[in-house]
Amino acid sequence: MVVTGAAFAKKARGTLTAGASSVAFTTSVTGAFSSTITVAPTQGATVAIRATDGASVASASFTVTYSAVSTAPTPATIAPIPAVTTPSPSSATAQPPISMAQLRFGVSTPGGATANAELDAVASLAGESPSIVLSYYDFGQAPPIADLDSVAARGATSLITWEPWRWGGGLDQPAFANNRIIAGDYDPSLRQWGAALAGWGKPVLLRYAHEMNGNWYPWADGANANAPGSSAAAWRHVHDVVVAAGATNVQWVWSPNIPYTGSTALSGLYPGSAYVDIVALDGYNWGTAASWSSWTSPGTLFGPGLAQLRALSPGKPILIAETGSAESGGSKAVWNRDLVSYLKAQGDVMGFVWFNHNKEADWRINSSLTSANALAAALAERR
Q1: Which CATH architecture has domain 104-381?
Q2: Which of 128, 163, 322, 327 is catalytic?
Q3: CB 243, CB 236: distance < 8 Å
Q4: What pLDDT does 94 receive?
Q5: From 128, 163, 211, 327, the catalytic residue
Q6: Is 211 part of the annotated catalytic residue set?
Q7: Domain ranges of the chain
Q8: Residue 40: what pLDDT?
């Protein structure tokens, strides 16, 4: 198979991998390369192809076909492809690298951890690849090792949101009440996840039972017949079982919603500094997208919650685990710039994760051209 690529570093050494085969290449003065690599002749097999020069990474998947002859089957000729890129050979540009800035940029997209086309689109909009990829799993799902592999292949870190319920089951799910988790009903699954994450071995961020200070999830104190204090107790139990299974590579992210009038006090929900590595906040500027909302600046949105996190967990790194802005009610472009500027000025904030979904509002980076351009410019300025 002949593989060609473009838009890599000029005169750089790199590695091309296809299945179990690997060859070295050197790019030209224009950043292009062309290499021949052997692919096993397994009819119908899917072969993942990956090229990296150490700074840029691109990949694609192809199906092997062959024509039978009088002896052994041989691979059919596969036409040269314009570039090796994620996720299909139709794109001819390697994605921009991950920034080494102190304030990390992350993203969640509708397709999740393996939606490389969506992640590539975000990278193109932002002018840099996300260094954190946020994805969601409920208690009925197996450990997402393939998802972790996909994110790691991009050079990024996985932020797993692990939700103790069954999606679509509503707020009242007695089987997933905190006292059932504390009693050990889900210990076999917890041990399975712990062993799988330990076996995977690389650093992973695990955000269990997020936004527990609200009233919209069945793990919140007061919801689903949960007693006060049970959210923190369930967290400690889950932590201990997963760690006992060997998952010392996991960093535990405790992630309430930004405090609001009527929300549960964070002090009664915090499981303790021995059980938490990173503290986080979820917060959105709803603008006038809802009847109850108004335009809110990043400082007003996050300031009170950040102060509470610092009081609860002095010295812990802080992550904005979900954020985004609506368009209605103000200038989203200005808000995007202000967000990056505000968070950059917070020395203990390690990064933010943009919720790139068109859901309750159009939170997407490219809900407008001005929004996309402003975020890209703000990220460039903070590098």
Answers
A1: Alpha-Beta Barrel (3.20)
A2: 322
A3: no
A4: 79
A5: 211
A6: yes
A7: 2-75, 104-381
A8: 58
Q: Look up 322 and say whether it is catalytic.
A: yes
Mean pLDDT, rounded, for 118-128: 98
Overall pTM surpassing 0.85 (yes/no): no
The pLDDT of residue 73 is: 32
Query: How far is 328 from 337, CA to CA, in rounded Å?
Result: 17
Can you give the pLDDT at residue 208?
99
Task: Pick the range with the lowest mean pLDDT from 39-53, 166-180, 213-227, 237-251.
Answer: 39-53
Q: What is the pLDDT of residue 278?
A: 99
Residue 28 clears pLDDT 70, i.e. is over it:
no
Residue 291 near residue 235, CB atoms below 8 Å: no
Which pLDDT does position 75 carry in this prediction?
33
Q: Quick one: three-class SS letters along the chain?
A: CEEEECCCCCCCEEEEEECCEEEEEECCCCCCEEEECCCCCCCCCEEEEEEECCCCEEEEEEECCEECCCCCCEECCCCCECCCCCCCCCCCCCCCCECCCCCEEEEECCCCCCCHHHHHHHHHHHCCECCEEEEEEECCCCCCHHHHHHHHHCCCEEEEEEECCCCCCCCCCHHHCHHHHHCCCCHHHHHHHHHHHHHHCCCEEEEECCCCCCCCCCCCCCCCCCCCCHHHHHHHHHHHHHHHCCCCCEEEEECCECCCCCCCCHHHCCCCHHHCCEEEEEEEECCCCCCCCCCCCHHHHHHHHHHHHHHHCCCCCEEEEEEEECCCCCCHHHHHHHHHHHHHCCCCEEEEEEECCECCCECCHHHCHHHHHHHHHHHHHCC
